[in-house]
Write a structure and sequence with these properties.
0% strand, 142 residues, mainly alpha
């Protein structure tokens, strides 16, 4: 049961970030400033899903891993602190900042610099989480 909870939470977190990322790119390229502001507010509301799913995935993963020295588990454990710190130090503050700036109609160079940083950090987390999903699936098959 714990394995299913871990997999579900991890996939939900991954999909949530992927939706945030692709929606941001799409609305930045094709949308109006009002659409960007609406999306940035929606992303903040999406944190209600993202933060618990990431916490559940991390906690259940650590519980499942225990003191294992299995190389695949060690790789997954090594990635998790970076994913968490990236989310807490870069992604969450960026989301809050961009929502505030966009709701005030301030689409200046600072907004777009932070937006670029957020997209890069989001892509990094998607990559690392994708590696963790790949490794999890490989362990399940073996």
């Amino acid at each position: 049961m714990k394995t299913k909870i871990h997999a579900t939470a991890g996939c939900l977190g991954f999909l949530t970030i992927a939706i945030f990322w692709t929606s941001t790119v799409t609305v930045e390229l094709l949308g109006s400033e009002a659409a960007i502001a609406t999306l940035k507010e929606s992303i903040l509301w999406g944190m209600i899903v993202l933060i618990p799913s990431m916490a559940i995935a991390g906690g259940s993963g650590m519980s499942l891993a225990g003191n294992s020295t299995y190389p695949t588990i060690l790789r997954k454990k090594k990635r998790m602190p970076f994913i968490a710190l990236n989310g807490l130090i870069i992604l969450l503050p960026s989301a809050i900042f961009l929502a505030i700036k966009s709701s005030a109609g301030e689409f200046d160079s600072t907004f777009y610099t932070v937006q670029g940083i957020e997209l890069l950090a989001g892509a990094t987390n998607l990559t690392l989480m994708g590696f963790n999903i790949r490794d999890g699936l490989s362990m399940r098959r073996s």
